[in-house]
Amino acid sequence: MIEVSGFSKRYGRHEAVGNLSFQVPGGMVFGLLGSNGAGKTTTIRALVGLTRPTAGTVRVQGFDVWREPVKAKAAFGYIPDRPYLYGKLTARELLRFVAQLYSVQSAEAEIERWLTFFRLGDFGNELLETYSHGMRQKVAIICALLPDPPVLIVDEPMVGLDPHAARQVRELLRNHADRGRAVLLTTHSLPVAEAVCDRLVVLDRGRVLGQGTMDELRAHTGTEAGGVHGDSLERIFFRLLEEEQAEEARRAVGVTG
Ligand SMILES: Nc1ncnc2c1ncn2[C@@H]1O[C@H](COP(=O)(O)OP(=O)(O)OP(=O)(O)O)[C@@H](O)[C@H]1O
Prior knowledge:
It is built from 9 helices and 10 strands. By secondary structure, the protein is of the alpha/beta class. A hairpin with a 2-residue loop joins strand 4 (55-60) and strand 5. The longest helix has 26 residues, at 231-256. Bound molecules: adenosine-5'-triphosphate (ATP). Adenosine-5'-triphosphate (ATP) binds at residues 11, 16, 34, 36-42.
């Protein structure tokens, strides 16, 4: 369970995220969408304890990430958009290290199962510094999933993955939630969001433009279902941005007129 309540983050005078609230219970894939600079990564960084909220609270499995960081961090797996891996370790060495940290049961068998799943078995004894971007991304995904965490937090999961791996990851995220875990992801891919997310929040410049299930967002924006896969979320997304721009224009006229 993820609980974000009244979360705001300021950098100097610039408000990156303002008064954001949402919950992600077990069983749900929740998508954080928005244009560049909308505040998605800032929200994720607060949730994983990398940036401190200016206001509000962020909780994972009931633990405040800033007050009880060790308990909160034991409860989630995190897949960053640019993963840092220890280049002088092999994939197997890194995964054994992670397995020990999280006391993973049957660790060797699990590590081999994951390496095989991502077709990395033959490279498992190579140094990570020799891995391609996509191979590193796969290892970062295995690191996050190896402990089978109750909460999974994912920043741009598909970047750098080939189409086969991207489909595997979509299915993994969905399966993780279907086994009762909470999954939060950010993505620029509207088809991915539409395919795997149960609920969505659309951010723009740190503010919420819309929030709900696809059906709720369709009803809110007056856009209809159907069309090419991913197309219907695209229409919702652009309608929300248009509404925001129209509102801004009205405010500007009000100020100057
Ligand atoms: N460390 C920082 N110092 C100052 N400003 C920052 C910092 N980190 C983020 N920001 C600002 O906060 C805003 C939100 O950035 P954030 O990285 O959360 O956006 P995003 O939605 O993840 O964007 P993108 O899709 O481009 O990755 C931006 O205006 C950015 O310039």
